[in-house]
Amino acid sequence: MNTLRTVTLANGKQSTILLADDLKDLSSHLGNYGRSVLWVFDTNTAKLFKQLPPVHVVLESGESSKNFVSLERILFAAMDEGLGRDGRIIGFGGGVVCDMAAFAASVYMRGCHLTLVPTTLLCMVDASVGGKAAIDFRGLKNMVGSFYPADEILISFDTLRTLSEKEFLNGLAEVIKHALLSQDEELYKLLLTKKNEILARDSETLQRLLDLSLAVKIWYIEQDPTETLGIRQMLNLGHTFGHALESSSHFGLFGHGSCVAWGTGRALEAGVSLGVTEKAYASGATKLFKSYGYNMDYRIGRGDWIDFREHLSKDKKKEAGKVLFVLLEGQGKAILKPLEIQTVQHLVIAKPIF
Amino acid sequence: MNTLRTVTLANGKQSTILLADDLKDLSSHLGNYGRSVLWVFDTNTAKLFKQLPPVHVVLESGESSKNFVSLERILFAAMDEGLGRDGRIIGFGGGVVCDMAAFAASVYMRGCHLTLVPTTLLCMVDASVGGKAAIDFRGLKNMVGSFYPADEILISFDTLRTLSEKEFLNGLAEVIKHALLSQDEELYKLLLTKKNEILARDSETLQRLLDLSLAVKIWYIEQDPTETLGIRQMLNLGHTFGHALESSSHFGLFGHGSCVAWGTGRALEAGVSLGVTEKAYASGATKLFKSYGYNMDYRIGRGDWIDFREHLSKDKKKEAGKVLFVLLEGQGKAILKPLEIQTVQHLVIAKPIF
Questions:
Q1: What helix, strand, coil percent values describe chain A, rounded to 5?
Q2: How far apart are CA A56 and CA A42, in angstroms?
Q3: Helix (H, G, I), strand (E, B) or coil at B142
Q4: Strand partners, B227
Q5: Which residue ranges form the domains of chain A, and what is each CATH number?
Q6: Residue partners of A47: CB distance under 8 A and separation at least 6
Q7: Which of B114, B200, B277, B344 pairs with A71 at a CA distance of 20 to 30 A?
């Protein structure tokens, strides 16, 4: 078990990101906590254990579990076990499990200990790090939640190797997004030059990829842990468009990663059309996404526009009632800007311009 | 509108406590927020308005509204109105309304603006200040919640004068508790020497009482905003015994204040029996409570002990599975100590020792 990175967040609270040699190493670390521990799995990750730990909750896998019902189930199990504030909730799974475990830990007795074991690439590079926890509410993504960094995040590459291609690409979209937001070009270059190794999930390359991707996320979140300074919000590049697509297609027709990739494409196009983004940069970044197989040319049907716009209007990045979009001036230079609704409509329905 | 005190809490977030000349002054201050505001009332405080503000939620008055259903009602109303993160929830009422408004504001889009207008003495001196918000869960008080200080707390004495005697005494118990926890004797002396003025709710005396009481609370919470250093917990003097009584009598047979007064009496007795508290100090403090009409001699029936013990065991102040009690070594000197269950049983069932 090695420390990969340490993150300092709200209230000076530290999250340690640890890299386990393998699942056995991981289990022995978690075994040390003994009692006063509640595990949260989903129906997929529960299968990884021959015998589940004595106190656990197994959520139905999938986005539809990110709701108040799951929250209450976890809280009730914690209470039933008599967990104190010094007790620990361990989330073992992807983004849904980690979000639910973290949100529950943040409100159980106003906060208990939290360990996250992300089992997907998406969760390793994004959801598990940075303390954002949320549930979907009345059909809208992440509307209700809190900031609550995990004490520790445990990563084992064993789990990464068992992911489906689709699930792996789901996470890789966030890595590419981080590459565009990075203050240097190292991650971008790694993605350009080591595509085969990455897709073959070569351990050494993945560790480098993970580390560089985390470094970008940490750079933004340490400066603005609770997203109040307009810095952390830049990590939402591609997410305003992406979430609206995800929500209007009822969470699932497209994976989160595909939506983020697509949304980043729209943000790049928006930047170009407003003269904010250089056309060559936007075109290069779009090509990078495409080289990993993301569908950047997808456009929503005219009949879906009303629904899409409705979801867009519920975005959390608002100022004076106007939704703000993250645009890129260039590598690592993000800005927040409201877009005219006609511009958005043109971008998501019209033909691609690259 | 005058600033009474300013509190700096978690993340350096400041709460300003403002004193309004009267209800009109209060309304004109709140009127400035214009749109993007959601008001939370209960069935009692809603009656204070001839016409309710356009966007509002009215909760059923009473502790039974401190639940997930009320939380979801507020969140849904906020969403329905299209409130952004820069929107504001205003809680107008007692502890239940302020707790619900604060918990909702803390999780709505991971945090929006929050104004509290406490309308009871209890809420003015306690619930509204310090950022603790919570709901009851599965029959246990404040099991689920968060730390989320209000941006501002608006107090108008007009409301205090309309409170019932019972409701006024409900808050005064916390004031007396603060007097025992204070680093000086000013509040204690005020309570001893100005009983008639206090009970007659003389404005000048009440303002002094409120200010001194807030000063004590602020002294503890500023040092330990999220109750992790064993300092803020001292404010729970009387609450471990008191909450168990309140819970086992199903939230309502006794008011919160009566329970806290009674619980503080039990904590003083516990201290005396362990040689922690001087008998003369305990006796004096008990007399002070009695002089304001609190029943300090009440003991639970033998048949209620199992239920009481069960509720006690769910207290949040636990270490290694043992419930910790706040005891007093003397004026302003609180300590945390586990008690043997036999000691507790003896204290809550046996005859009074003072």
A1: 50, 20, 30
A2: 10
A3: strand
A4: none
A5: 2-162 (3.40.50.1970), 165-204+226-349 (1.20.1090.10)
A6: none
A7: B114
A29 is catalytic: no
Q: Is B321 on the interface with A (CB under 8 A)?
A: yes
Please tell me what DSSP assigns to residue B85.
T
Q: Give the C-alpha distances (Å, rounded to integers) separating B69 from A107, B82, B97.
A: 16, 20, 13
The string over A216-227, giving b where at least 16 C-beta atoms fall within 10 Å of a residue's C-beta and e elsewhere, is bbbbbbeebbbb
A223 interface with B at CB cutoff 8 Å: no
Neighbours of A298 (CB within 10 A): 16
| pLDDT, tens digit, 9 for 90 and up, residues B78-106 | 999 999 889 999 999 999 999 999 999 99
**pTM, whole model, 2 decimals?**
0.88
Is B321 close to A84, i.e. CB distance below 8 A?
yes
The ipTM, to two decimals, is 0.87
* CA separation for the pair B324, B344 (Å, rounded): 12
Contact of A108 with chain B, judged by CB distance below 8 Å, is answered with yes
Residue A93: closest CA among A76, A70, A69, A68:
A70
Distance (Å) from the C-alpha of residue B107 to the closest C-alpha of chain A?
5
Decide if pLDDT at A249 tops 70: no
Helix, strand and coil content of chain B, in percent to the nearest 5, comes to 50, 20, 30
**Which residue bears the tokens 């960094």?**
A149
**pLDDT tens column, A134-156:** 999 998 889 999 999 999 999 99
Is A82 within 8 Å of B227 when comparing Cβ atoms?
no
A184 touching chain B per CB within 8 A: no
